[in-house]
Amino acid sequence: MLAEIITIGDEILIGQIVDTNSAWIAKEFNTLGIKIRQITSVSDTAEQIKDAVNKAMKANDIILITGGLGPTKDDITKQTLCDLFNTSLVFDSIAYDNVVSIFSKKGYPILESNKQQAFLPQSCIPLYNTCGTAPGMLFNVDNKLIVSMPGVPYEMKTMMQLDVIPRLKSKFQFPVIVHRTLQTAGVGESFISEKLVKIEAALPEHIKLAYLPSLGIVRLRLTGIGKNEKLLQEEIDMYTSNIKDELGVVVFAEGDISLAACVCSILKEKKQTITLAESCTGGYVSSLIVQIPGCSEYFMGSTIAYSYEAKEMELDVNPDTLIKYGAVSENCINEMLLGAIKKFNTNCAIAISGIAGPDGGTPDKPVGTIYIGVVINKRQKVKRFNFENNRERNIERAAMAALNMLRLELLNEF
Amino acid sequence: MLAEIITIGDEILIGQIVDTNSAWIAKEFNTLGIKIRQITSVSDTAEQIKDAVNKAMKANDIILITGGLGPTKDDITKQTLCDLFNTSLVFDSIAYDNVVSIFSKKGYPILESNKQQAFLPQSCIPLYNTCGTAPGMLFNVDNKLIVSMPGVPYEMKTMMQLDVIPRLKSKFQFPVIVHRTLQTAGVGESFISEKLVKIEAALPEHIKLAYLPSLGIVRLRLTGIGKNEKLLQEEIDMYTSNIKDELGVVVFAEGDISLAACVCSILKEKKQTITLAESCTGGYVSSLIVQIPGCSEYFMGSTIAYSYEAKEMELDVNPDTLIKYGAVSENCINEMLLGAIKKFNTNCAIAISGIAGPDGGTPDKPVGTIYIGVVINKRQKVKRFNFENNRERNIERAAMAALNMLRLELLNEF
Predict the structure, then answer these.
(1) Per-position DSSP letters for A107-172, written without gaps between them
(2) CA A254 → CA A257, B29, B406, distances in Å?
(3) Rounded distance, CA B60 to CA B35, Å?
(4) Rounded to two decimals, what is the model's pTM?
(5) Range list for CATH 3.30.70.2860 in chain B
(6) Is the CB of residue B302 less than 8 Å from the CB of residue B286?
(7) Where does CATH 3.40.980.10 sit in chain A?
(8) CB-based contact B293 A359, cutoff 8 Å
(9) The pLDDT value given to residue A396
(10) Which of A286, A323, A391, B330 is a good FRET partner for B321, with 20 to 30 A between their CA atoms?
(11) What is the pLDDT, as a whole number, of residue A297?
(12) Burial (CB count within 10 angstroms: exposed 0-12, middle 13-18, buried 19+), residue B127
């Protein structure tokens, strides 16, 4: 089973946006066992869209198109597909009701351009959009499936998950593919690969291990392909548990769970409560915790103390400490932890203070120097991290390091 | 002048990596005035590489290829291009010296596979790699330029900047392309397009307007193509100012500036100071402000008050207010604003409280109900927003709405 992804949009071809839709679809299709033969990006012109679809139809069974379905003049995918497949637009009342419902919720009037979004090619199966006004379309032409979806990643992903993938699964017989993801924090790709040399060498032909690194996190993905699902699951189970045994606490989760979600589930399970005292991360770590539904069980609030004054007033940091050691110091972090715990009456806390950059570095404490502290039931631990020279990346890495420190200390404690 | 980018690599087609090379090259070419007609990603197979290059040569003047030049067995781009262009590999001593120098620096022995990297197609102009072992190649076939470069982003970018772009500039006369981006907040794509109907209809053939929406933000991009740069700039200036006049305060920036950066520059310019009282956004809005370097001039800290108790203790919200109106109410926001200002002694503040979901909705206040308040010099304003049923998106939309409210009130005040 071969497929091609066609992404449509001038913004891709002038480099204004990076096409992330293709990688997302490719990953999903890979899980299903559908091989992506080619990814093609073309501009919002009828000639190029037609040319790309025609060529793709010659070499593939499935063609997935994203983009060009918006209400504005430059969006021409729908009309172009109509022309290509010799069909015409007809009014679709379900799509129209969807437009009406979205606009009435927002309290906006419905404009002529929005009404146009409710017209769909007569020969297509409509893919109703649960998150936006532009419906998708599924065409069955010459025994090929052509799917056209909005380019907005969230709308496309929802449409794929709720509608397109279930349709594909019911229509085609796919080989059995089993994926298993393990997530690690706090160590690098080469450390892990060194540890797994023997396990990797022993992997059979039909099972592959991939390393997927991001800042502070390395995901490991085992992929097996076969015919007998039960047997394949058992094999993958075995290799998964071998890897877990070898890596120990470095593995924080099986499956696609964020580090914040993992930490939150431990806090919840162990009935711990947490507050954060954030300086250079400016509330980012707290916001990762608040992203987890149900966080009110263990999280009441945090203090963002960016200035010296805020650290003194809000977290009872001693002015002498700031003068003598500076805000980026073990001493300051220790006092921030105490102040945070006292303020929110929790038994756990995280404190972070550092030089995120681009300015403010010194020879002793260059940009990227970040102190992170964790306290659990009065047991405090502070570590110094030396990251790099990029503000955004330093904030992300500090957040991951802080959450991982808390995780390891929680495992230590309970 | 038309070009196509071909990225080669199985890792792209299974979604393991996002192809960021294409967007980078496209942006560079766009600045030069070379139009990217298509971006194509294919796997590491000779047949597909040949097919993609042949097709690209029919429709373009320049073909840029990245990937498949590594020392391992799966890297076959060099041999495939040799076959395609009827040439053979010859030893290149400069490329070999480069391999030797890199390996001796690392203290590694040179393997046979590395020696192979010093062989290059006889008919190509070598593009020596200053950051890695794989040289690039430039072919001139049938009056088309075909450039093959490594897939490692850093190596490719350096080769483009030091070698490929200067060669193109000396060889071709490029058309002039002018881009201008305007960013808007707080209104939808269709609202804007309705407002711009006349301006869009009056745009000449050689100037295009594109809409690029994300949560709470719509970017507008004017692109003009022509021969006379001064004339084109003047035309784009005129249309830009027409659009700005038509849209008014909805436009928050010209160019690629984030809404947070825009708000921060106003705070800085007007010498205002700010604090935030965040409930359902959990510190996210503060973290967007802290991402802007130099924020210590106007930002000292924030309060994340997630629980009722934290709102009472940290922001002096009256318990009666919480009982009578709830935390998601205009009354609570008004008190949060006062408490925040008092605590950090600033003259501006933002307060946010809402039901981000997935639980906690009521008939009166369904999930997505978020109150946002802004105070500037004692003038308070509170608005209720009705977003949707997705926690992560509600947090993002609340953040954008809050920053935009502050921006509009700052413009109102000064």
Answers:
(1) TPPPPHHHHHTTEEETTSEEE--SSSS--EEEEEETTEEEEEE-SSHHHHHHHIIIIIHHHHHHH-
(2) 7, 42, 42
(3) 10
(4) 0.82
(5) 176-254
(6) yes
(7) 2-171
(8) yes
(9) 96
(10) A286
(11) 96
(12) buried
Cα nearest neighbour of A210 on chain B: B16
10-residue averages of pLDDT along chain B (414 residues): 94 90 94 92 95 96 94 87 97 93 79 86 96 93 96 92 94 86 94 95 93 91 91 97 97 95 97 98 98 96 97 97 97 98 97 96 95 97 94 96 98 90
Given the candidates 3.40.980.10, 1.20.1250.20, 3.10.450.50, 3.40.50.960, the CATH classification of the domain at A2-171 is 3.40.980.10
Instruction: Give the torsion sign (CA, B70, B71, B72, B78).
Output: positive
| Backbone φ, ψ for residue A83 (5° rounding) | -60, -45
Please list the residue range(s) of chain B that carry CATH number 3.90.950.20: 259-413
For residue A338, give every residue at least 6 positions away whose Cβ sits within 8 Å of its Cβ, in sequence order, or none.
A316, A375
The number of beta carbons lying within 10 Å of the beta carbon of residue A100 is: 15
Q: Give the per-residue pLDDT at A6.
A: 98
Cβ <8 Å between B36 and A14: yes
* Chain A interface mutation, best of B20, B24, B64, B287, highest count of A Cβ atoms under 10 Å: B287
* Residue B18 with chain A: CB contacts under 8 Å: 18-20, 22-23
Residue A404: pLDDT band (50, 70, 90) is: very high
Strand B125-127 versus strand B136-141 pairing type? antiparallel
DSSP line for B24-91: HHHHHHHHHTPEEEEEEEE-S-HHHHHHHHHHHHHH-SEEEEES--SSSTT--HHHHHHHHTT--EEE
Give the Å distances, CA to CA, from B52 to A150, B6, B268: 26, 7, 52
| Cα separations in angstroms, A110 against A21, A73, B211, B248 | 29, 17, 19, 22
Q: What is the pLDDT of residues A158-205, one digit of tens each?
A: 999 999 999 999 888 888 888 899 999 999 887 898 899 999 999 999
Domain A259-413: assigned CATH number: 3.90.950.20
CB pair distance less than 8 Å for A71 and B309: no
Mean pLDDT over A61-86 rounds to: 94
Cβ contact A306–B309 (<8 Å): no
Name the token pair of A105: 């919720």
Rounded (10°) CA dihedral B51, B52, B56, B57: -40
Treating both helix axes as pointing N-terminal to C-terminal, what angle do B46-59 and B77-84 enclose, rounded to 10 degrees?
60
Cβ atoms of A43 and A51 closer than 8 Å: no
Give CA–CA dist A378/B72, Å, rounded. 53
Q: What is the pLDDT of residue A246?
A: 97
Class of domain A176-254: alpha beta
User: CA angle A149-A153-A156, nearest 5°?
Assistant: 30
Reported confidence tier of residue A406, pLDDT bands at 50, 70, 90: very high
* Helical pair A391-413 and A259-269, crossing angle rounded to 10 deg: 30
- What's B164's DSSP letter? I
Query: Residues with Cβ < 8 Å from B73, sequence gap 6 or more?
Result: none
Query: Per-residue pLDDT tens for A78-104?
Result: 999 999 999 999 999 999 999 999 888
Q: How many CB pairs under 8 A join A and B?
A: 262
Q: How many angstroms away from the CA of B287 is the closest CA of chain A?
A: 5
Q: Is the ipTM reported for this complex over the cut 0.85?
A: no
